[in-house]
Amino acid sequence: MKIHHIAIICSDYEVSKKFYTEILNLNIIREVYREERQSYKLDLAIGEHYVIELFSFLDPLKRPSRPEACGLRHLAFSVENITGKRNELVEKGLVCEEIRIDEFTGKEFFFTQDPDQLPLEFYEM
């Protein structure tokens, strides 16, 4: 029917929480500390749409996450103004690629990354 959510395990919960809520401006639905796992679970939304579960775990394993590595390639967010979004993220201290053009759709997009180097794409709709 549709994707319900995407789960992300971060290496530094406070850094990633700040990134997703203050840099990307996702809304907090709920934040839970799970004592038995010594782990946080933060449910995030874009507007009213639940999209990301952000987890913390003690000593999570490393995983390659370059766009061409096996596994999840990247997360893509749709935006109305690609230049405005890129400028906003650069002003907040993110390193962003130059804007590119999708050869099949003619739409503009660029990549940046989260604090754990998970590639993030912003795609103009």
What does this structure look like?
By secondary structure, the chain is an alpha/beta fold. It folds into 2 domains: 1-61, Roll (2,3-Dihydroxybiphenyl 1,2-Dioxygenase, domain 1); 62-125, Roll (2,3-Dihydroxybiphenyl 1,2-Dioxygenase, domain 1). Helix content is 17%, strand content 38%. The chain is built from 2 helices and 8 strands. It has a 4-stranded mixed beta sheet with strand order 1-4-3-2, with helices on one face. The two termini are 21 Å apart. Pfam families: Glyoxalase.
Short key terms for the protein model shown above:
125 residues, alpha/beta, 2,3-Dihydroxybiphenyl 1,2-Dioxygenase, domain 1, 2 domains, four-stranded mixed sheet, globular
